[in-house]
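Give me structure tokens for this 318-residue protein.
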Amino acid sequence: MSEYIIVLPSKPRIISEEGTSGRYEIDGLYPGYGHTLGNSLRRIILSSLPGAAITEVKIAGTSHEFSTIDGVKEDVITILLNLKKLLTDEPQSLRIKIKGIHTVTAKDITVPGQVELLNPDLHIADVTSKNTELDIEMKVEKGLGYVPKEVLQKNRVDIGTISLDSIFTPIRRVNYDVENMRVGDRTDFNRLKIFIETDGTLTPKEALERSIEIMITQLKAIVGFKEEEIPLEIAKGEGDQKSEAKEKKEIDPEILKTRIETLDLSSRTQNALANGNIRTVGGLSRKKEQDLLEIEGLGSKGIQEIKKMLAGFGITLK
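Here you go.
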């Protein structure tokens, strides 16, 4: 049976790592598995790695994103777009408070000690008047993937607070390629090449490793799944009806799923049951004798034949 075993691939191999980008290869994938794993990993990398993003902004003196600020070159929408480029690794409340002529960058943000800004030179706004005070409060949260502002808002936003569509993913770009390679005498095995670029809050190697762990965890959760048993329709009643229901509960579900056409019944009886839309032993066991007598082409002789067949399985009509 060894010829039916799917050969396992190699461990991921680092081809190159430069700053926030990296290239990796996995060799010896069974034919077709390059795209199977490559596409799955790409989707997980893009959607399932947590990151931090600004979700709310409050700018003193403005009530909505279409406002302008006296003494500031940029309008509010431009400032918000600049703030969305801010990279940080922790959820936190941040603040900028500047007065007078100044080119505002991420360096001007007041941050707690445990928070690191990964792009401190990010340009945010230009204050052009010495009497202007720019006061911005920001809320940074952690999340997965892309979340629209309608979801984040949750009807709890204070007046003057602007909710933002948030892209939490720390991944900037990811793609994969598959090429054939030789394994033994075969030349159709796959080599999977993966390119990952992050925003710097985690390394591309960490992104690949975490995505593999997520895939394994998801698959482990469904190992050993069991098909749900088909529920029996049990008649409500007293005395012998309860006993009959209990007996039906103990019948092997596989027997109830047996198709009528596979049973040792006459062609006339089989055709009559098919015309009555009865396809399985389970469906037949839920019928009363009177129900069967109403089916065209099925008489008392056919009923006796059915009863005898069901008795072989330890089943009776309802």
